[in-house]
Amino acid sequence: MRALVTILPEPYFQTIMSLWGDLEERFGFRHMYTTPMPHFTWQLGDDYKTGYAAVLEETLQSVSPFVVQTDIITWFSADRPIVYLRVVESEELLSFHRLLWEKLIPWCDNPSMLYSIENWVPHITLSMDERSWLKLPQVRRFLATKDLRWEMKADSVSMVYLTADTKAIVEKQFPFGSASKPGTLAAD
User: Fold this and answer.
1) What CATH number belongs to 2-175?
2) pLDDT (mean) for 28-44
3) CB under 8 Å to 121, separation ≥6 — which residues?
4) Distance between CA atoms of 100 and 97, rounded to whole angstroms?
């Protein structure tokens, strides 16, 4: 599995890492990946064809960093319920997702349609434990005590893959705009 993600900047990265620790300690929830990294996913598939990086770099040249907001804790109903922090669907976020989907879907082998333009729900996963349903009221009460209404800057995407032992590895980070050219910085 490989995915295009935005890894959360500090202090949000560490806050989510701490929340994952708290959820494990208080409720017994364990993260499904050996080396989790707080992020939200733009696109996911079995693999990406050689050449995707050049297309992605070219696509990102015209993209400026933008603000991403989070707001509420909610969950997906599934066999393995997923408790998550919702990412607000702003016009910039949705436009960028559409751009990535349209430019990179030809390069993605067996893309997950959960991340298609029609189905995508931007989110930061907090728990994927099958016991989530049993403890959902307690988890919601606990998370309600946390300030999770955030604004952060999205200024890059990363290609991440999972190893056979479920370690998440960043293959490459792709900055927005002119930051990807050596010796230059992207404008804020």
Assistant:
1) 3.90.1140.10
2) 80
3) 76, 86, 114
4) 5
